[in-house]
Amino acid sequence: MVDAEDPTYAEYFGGFIRALGRRYDGHPDMESVDLSIVGSWGEGIGSNLLTRTTREALVDAYTDSFKETPLVMLLTDKNTNSYGLSKANVGWRVDCLGDVCGKAWEFSDDWSHMNDYYPQQLIRSGMQEAWKKAPVSLEVCWVVQHWKDKGWDIDYIIDQSLKWHISSFNAKSSPIPKEWESNVNRWLNKMGYRLALRKFSFPETVKPGGKLAFASWWENLGVAPCYKKFPLALRLKNDQSTQVFITEANISEWLPGDSLFDSAVWIPADLPLGNYQLEIAILYGHTHQPAIQLANTGRQPDGWYLLGNVEVQLELESPDVIE
């Protein structure tokens, strides 16, 4: 058994985490990092027994080292969870989604994770609002087929997870029962973020060296924001020229519901005159290739969405705006 109170544990395990952070923080292939400190599978069991010095040293190894890649931590005890939240935007995870029935555990006849632990611990730990800044990741209890075999209500389980603002679900690589595919598809359409462009207004004509001002209305149809700052971009394109404009939008701030983003991009003075398609996309930051499929029709083969046409000309004939 590892003695977490031995100072060498925080020194060497914490040092390993810091080395990982130096190498991998912000890596595009990293979706999130689990803030694992003690216990079986590193899931945090026993964290309530740690001294303050040890707890803070282990948590600091993560919060000091991962500034770009989102962090999540198991719902454990108030001291550990609240300290993590005090140091960084930390989300949470649990590993028994679907456990709604008592008599499933040898130690109790009427206790279940979803009714007797998760809702209460969210409140006690102060993590009810953590989803606004960092992910909520839930793991299946047993496998989904087990839920069906036991006759549990799949829609109740789904709706509880949506109430908790789930962004990802670990099904342990197990299949979904055929009879529940439509239920799970409903789940997928609400889980995490789902961005829809509701309205986009822009001028019909612009001139080289001028600006293309626009107003946009977005709706997040999901239950959580996107936790990575994928850039929102516009593109002017025709057969002779292509120009990409990265906007200042921060989509990680678009919570469920409506958001407005009004801004402008400057047209290069040497952009050739002519008629251009105006397109929009949310891109990967490292490749500037389209990353996110919107909840809109009109997605082109290269991932961009057509908004309309803009004429680049020297003299602007009218201030017409296209919506």
Report on this model:
- By secondary structure, this protein is an alpha/beta fold.
- It is 24% helix and 26% strand.
- The strands form 3 sheets. A 5-stranded parallel sheet has the order 1-2-3-4-5. A 5-stranded mixed sheet has the order 7-13-12-9-10, with no helix packed on it.
- Helix 1 (7-24) runs parallel beside helix 2 (52-63) and helix 2 runs parallel beside helix 3.
- It is globular and about 80 Å long.
Overall mean pLDDT: 94
Please count the helical segments: 8
What's the end-to-end separation, in Å? 65 Å
So what's the overall shape? Answer: globular
Strand tally is 14
The secondary structure category is alpha/beta
Helical amount among residues, as a percent range?
A: 10-25%
Main beta sheet, described? 5 strands, parallel
Strand content: 25-35%
CA gyration radius, whole angstroms: 24 Å
Low-confidence stretches: none
Q: SSE order in H/E notation?
A: HEHEHEHHEHHEHEEEEEEEEE
Major sheet strand order: 1-2-3-4-5
Question: In short, what is this structure?
Answer:
With 323 residues, this protein is an alpha/beta fold. The chain has helices at residues 7-24, 52-63, 78-87, 113-116, 118-125, 144-149, 154-163, 181-188, and strands spanning 33-34, 71-74, 90-97, 136-140, 168-170, 195-203, 205-206, 211-220, 232-237, 242-246, 257-266, 274-282, 305-312, 321-322.
List the helices and strands and how they pair.
Layout (H helix, E strand, L loop, with lengths): L6 H18 L8 E2 L17 H12 L7 E4 L3 H10 L2 E8 L15 H4 L1 H8 L10 E5 L3 H6 L4 H10 L4 E3 L10 H8 L6 E9 L1 E2 L4 E10 L11 E6 L4 E5 L10 E10 L7 E9 L22 E8 L8 E2 L1
Parallel strand pairs: 1-2, 2-3, 3-4, 4-5, 7-13
Antiparallel strand pairs: 6-8, 6-14, 8-11, 9-10, 9-12, 12-13
Helix pairs in contact: 1-2, 2-3
